[in-house]
Structures are given as C-alpha cells and as structure tokens.
Amino acid sequence: MSAYKGIIETYRQYLPVSDKTPLISLQEGNTPLLPAPYLSGLLGAGFEVYLKYEGLNPTCSFKDRGMTMAVSKAKEESSKVIICASTGNTSASAAAYAAKAGLKCIVLIPAGAIAMGKLSQALIYGAKVLAIKGNFDDALDLVKEISAKHPITLVNSLNPYRIEGQKTGAFEICDTLEAAPDYQCMPVGNAGNITAYWKGYKEYKKNGKINSLPKMLGFQAAGSAPIVKGRPIKEPKTIATAIKIGNPASWKQAEAARDESGGLINAVTDTEILSAYKILASKEGVFVEPASAASVAGLLKLAKAGYFNKLTTNDQRLTTKIVCILTGHGLKDPDRALKTIKPPKTIKADLKTVLKEIGY
Ligand code: F0G
C-alpha cells in the first residue's frame, strides 16, 4: 500500500527530520490545485489562474503543514506543552496536532475577534483557550515572553519548523504544474506563509526541480497593512480577521520575498475582499474565508491596473500561470457568508408557492 502519509513523509529529504523524529501527522497537504476558468477568462487570453485550496487540510487551513513539523519536533525534543497566539487558524491547528501528540496546548486569542469555526475547533480539540482583551499583536508579545521564560514550545511561525512545513505548499504546486508558476498571489498577515513559500521555491530551484521562480504578490487588508504603509498599525481593522495584524513577526522576510522575486506587497479593501469572496464561491464553486479571498482580490486589482499585461509583453511562452493560495475554508467563518448574502425567504410549504417562487 502506498497511501498518502502527509507532508513530512512526502518531502522528508527537504525537511529537518530524522528517524528519531516521531511523526505527528493528520495526513495534511496534497491539496487540490484547481484550474479557475472563470478567473482565467477575466484576465483574458494567455492567462491561466489556479487555486491552491488549502482549506482542504485536516483542520481546514494551511497551518497544518507547519504544525505537523512544529509538533513532531516539539515531541522529539520532549516538550510537554505548546503555546501560540492566534487569529484563529493557528490555534485550531495547534490544538489538533497537540491532541494527536498527547501534548498540552495553550492558545491566546484576541477576545471577540476570531471566527466561530476556529474557536469551536480550538475548544473541542481540548486546548486551554484564553481570550485576551487586546489584539493579535498583544497576544503574540505575551506568548513570546512566556515561551522564553518557561519550558513551553512556541508554535507560531517564529518557530522555524513551521516555515519548513509550510514551504511544502510550493513543492506541491511545482510538482503539479511540472514548473514554477509565473506569479503567486497570497494573503499576508503575520507574514510566515509568504516567507515559507519563497523558501520552498528557492529550494526547489536549487535542487533542479524548477528552472524559474515566481514573482511573489502578497496582499494585506487595507486597514491592516503595516508592510504596505511601512509602519506598524496600532489598531488594525478588517473583516478578514485572520489577517488583522498590525506588526507581523516575519516582516523583514516578507519584504525579502517581495524584493528578491521582483514581486510586490499591496493592500486590498474589505469591499474588494468580499467581492472576490463571492466570485470564488459563486463562479468557481470554492468557499473560502475572507482572508483567503485577499489573494483573488489582489489578482483582480492588479489585472485591472494592467500589471500582468505590462510585465508579460515580452514573454515568449504561450501562457502565464498564476497561482492564488486559498489559505482557509469558508466554513471557518459562516457568519460572514450569512452577513454577505441575503438570508433565505421563508414561504408556505405548498407546491404552488414554491413553483411561483422559482419562476414556473
Ligand atoms: N490566511 C489565513 C486563513 C490565515 O489564518 C492567516 C494567518 C493568513 C492567511 C496569513 O498568513 O500569517 O503566515 O502571513 N493566520 C494566523 C493565525 C495569524 O493565527 O491563524 P501569515
């Protein structure tokens, strides 16, 4: 039997693991790279858009790629407790992998500011969840201090094993396309994931698996765009709660990914995010959480501004391939869907009324 065993087994040669590393896996990774015909059509001839649907990981976000590594290494190092700050997804993932590993998990979340699906996950997986009267950045400062002073492993993306695991997203994209894409669009919050993807692409190129590197295009929410503005944002605001972050931990690395790749980090408004959120669901059949839609909001914003046309006029190849990373599942934040679309009409339970409503 050669059943899929998760990202560590699949990409072992690229990861800092040994025979002594216990494998704590929920068979994360191996997510679909969906062709997106509607979005490709919006960009026009010569463009192929793909969606890397990371919402189909075991806890429904990309964090599982990093968490299988961070928790396996914590277990190898005989740690008994892990801790993280989170806008929701990291806490859900940490809690699940801690449960599997038999470790204690502590999570600090900004009170009232994480989506319901994520909170319910962290709780049911058995984490000790503390809602602080502060934002994500305050929570991160606290867990950094706690893990520095106590025998507790930090599993935010400051933990280098998180980045190692998450870089496998880039490997999968290249394995599927049999080349690197020309551009990659992704949301940027604490900036670990853009750091991880860029590392992955560079390693694959160094190992001769790909010949070129993509331009990295990162998108922050306009009300939470410290990298775009060039200064920390004290009170970040956005409906995309996952990326409501004012002082990203991997700020410098995100700038390096942007600059080394010749890409950019731009801002998208909540209106643009919600528009992309609806397009993804209603035209591509892919339900994501709002933060994930920032990838596609950014893609559409740049396309409208003529960004892609300008950069590809001298390109001899027939198609320009653009991958959008869809970081989390739509069911993480069902409230947002219900707030965005009109609720169903309640009608009488008789045939005539139903037929009339549906136009027959
Ligand atoms: N998309 C989703 C759905 C996220 O949950 C996050 C981050 C990001 C994008 C941004 O990734 O931080 O690596 O730049 N969520 C973290 C959390 C902060 O606590 O769940 P990043």
Please tell me about this protein's structure.
The model has no long low-confidence stretch (mean pLDDT 96). The chain is globular, with a radius of gyration of 20 Å. The strands form 2 sheets. The chain has a 6-stranded mixed β-sheet, sandwiched between helices. A 4-stranded parallel β-sheet has the order 5-4-3-6. Strand 4, helix 5 (116-124) and strand 5 (128-132) form a beta-alpha-beta unit. It is α/β, with parallel strands linked by helices and 360 residues long. The chain is built from 16 helices and 10 strands. The longest helix is centred in the middle third of the chain and has 15 residues, at 192-206. Bound molecules: ligand F0G. Ligand F0G binds at residues 61, 63, 86-90, 157, 187-193, 242-243, 289, 291-292, 327-328.
Spell out which ligands are present: ligand F0G
Radius of gyration: 20 Å
Proportion of helical residues = 40-55%
Shape: globular
Most strands sheet: 6 strands, mixed
* Average pLDDT score: 96
Strand order in the largest sheet: 1-2-10-7-8-9
Our measurement of the CA-to-CA distance between the termini, rounded to an integer number of angstroms, reads: 53 Å
Number of helices: 16
Number of strands: 10
Order of helices and strands: HEHEHEHEHEHEHHEHEHHEHHHEHH
Percentage of residues in DSSP E strands: 5-15%
Class from secondary-structure proportions: alpha/beta
Unreliable stretches: none
